[in-house]
């Protein structure tokens, strides 16, 4: 009963610092296991304040480690980093802003002595205490050569000459344009009558049945009626007038009234020989009324009813043939 039974290994006694038992790391039962090898060259020291920073994303931490590992003067622009890593430009830009907010990075625009403006990036291995107010180190100004002392002039300097008056810039004057030729006046009948104007207005209003592009307003018909009346006065058949006005129309017809005015004026046929329209306008003449042909119902001017010129010619030929 006096002998003690040992059934479990004794507990490990705490060892003092520096004892041989603390020289070896105890292998943990779970989690990460470190296998560390001492670096002799080509390494970068990174603080845990960066590697374990809870305010930074994983991309920002990795980007900060990459920038701190680069030699001085290396290019770290967004374009260079986008070509180097698979992340998008937007994610790399956001990571750079995170590093600037935490004080690990500072970017500024600097003008060089040559006048060129470049982006200067400063990387900090320790976060700055006040990242918003601390500015990047300014480049040292290059020493300017001292100007040589000139000897005192032996003669008094000449008075400054007044600057020449600036020569006024030449004023560009556009060349004069030729005056526009006024349009020809619309033909007017020598002996206008109410019946002649009614026939002309009916012909103009009827044009839209043959050419829908030539649909005219009431004002256009009133304006163009004297021109058509002149054609009828010169013994022009209405079918001939209609064919002349509607044949070979442009596509599209933008201004029907202007087109008809041009054709009525420029294509006006001359008066037939022997008609009253050859009489000078200053002489007073008696208007010959219009008659309807008894055969073809064509309108013609005559003091007595009967046949038109074509029907009279056909009748004369028929009589001559019968006599033969």
Describe the protein:
The chain has 324 residues and is mostly helical. Among the domains are: 48-123, Arc Repressor Mutant, subunit A (Orthogonal Bundle); 185-273, no CATH class; 289-324, no CATH class. The chain contains 10 helices and 4 strands, in the order ααααββαααααββα. It has helices at 48-51, 58-69, 78-84, 89-102, 194-205, 207-210, 218-233, 238-246, 256-266, 309-323, and strands spanning 105-111, 117-123, 290-292, 299-301. Strands 1-2 form a two-stranded antiparallel sheet. β3 (290-292) and β4 (299-301) form a beta hairpin. α2 crosses α4, α5 (194-205) packs across α7 (218-233) and α7 packs parallel to α9. The longest helix has 16 residues, at 218-233. The radius of gyration is 55 Å and the shape is elongated.
What descriptors fit this protein?
two-stranded antiparallel ribbon, Arc Repressor Mutant, subunit A, mainly alpha, elongated, 324 residues
Give me a quick take on this structure.
By secondary structure, this protein is mainly α. The protein has helices at 48-51, 58-69, 78-84, 89-102, 194-205, 207-210, 218-233, 238-246, 256-266, 309-323; strands spanning 105-111, 117-123, 290-292, 299-301.
């Amino acid at each position: 009963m006096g002998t003690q039974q040992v059934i479990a290994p004794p507990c490990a006694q705490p060892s003092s610092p520096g004892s041989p038992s603390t020289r070896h790391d105890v292998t943990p039962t779970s989690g990460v296991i470190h296998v560390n090898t001492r670096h002799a060259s080509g390494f970068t020291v990174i603080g845990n304040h960066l590697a374990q920073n809870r305010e930074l994303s994983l991309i920002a931490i990795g980007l900060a480690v990459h920038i701190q590992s680069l030699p001085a003067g290396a290019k770290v622009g967004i374009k260079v980093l986008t070509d180097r890593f698979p992340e998008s430009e937007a994610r790399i830009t956001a990571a750079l802003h995170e590093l600037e907010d935490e004080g690990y990075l500072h970017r500024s625009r600097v003008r060089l002595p040559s006048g060129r403006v470049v982006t200067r990036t400063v990387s900090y291995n320790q976060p700055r205490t006040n990242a918003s107010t601390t500015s990047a180190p300014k480049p040292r100004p290059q020493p300017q050569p001292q100007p040589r002392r000139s000897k005192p002039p032996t003669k008094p300097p000449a008075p400054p000459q007044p600057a020449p008056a600036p020569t006024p810039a030449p004023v560009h004057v556009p060349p004069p344009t030729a005056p526009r030729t006024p349009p020809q006046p619309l033909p007017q009948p020598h002996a206008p009558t109410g019946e002649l104007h009614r026939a002309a207005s009916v012909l103009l209003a009827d044009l839209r049945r043959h050419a829908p592009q030539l649909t005219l307003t009431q004002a256009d018909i009133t304006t163009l009626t004297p021109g058509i009346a002149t054609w009828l006065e010169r013994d022009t058949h209405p079918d001939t007038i209609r064919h002349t006005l509607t044949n070979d129309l442009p596509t599209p017809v933008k201004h029907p009234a202007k087109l008809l005015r041009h054709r009525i004026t420029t294509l006006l046929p001359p008066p037939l020989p022997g008609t009253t329209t050859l009489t000078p306008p200053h002489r007073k003449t008696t208007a010959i009324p219009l008659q309807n042909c008894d055969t073809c119902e064509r309108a013609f001017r005559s003091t007595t009813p009967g046949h038109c010129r074509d029907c009279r010619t056909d009748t004369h030929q028929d009589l001559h043939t019968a006599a033969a």
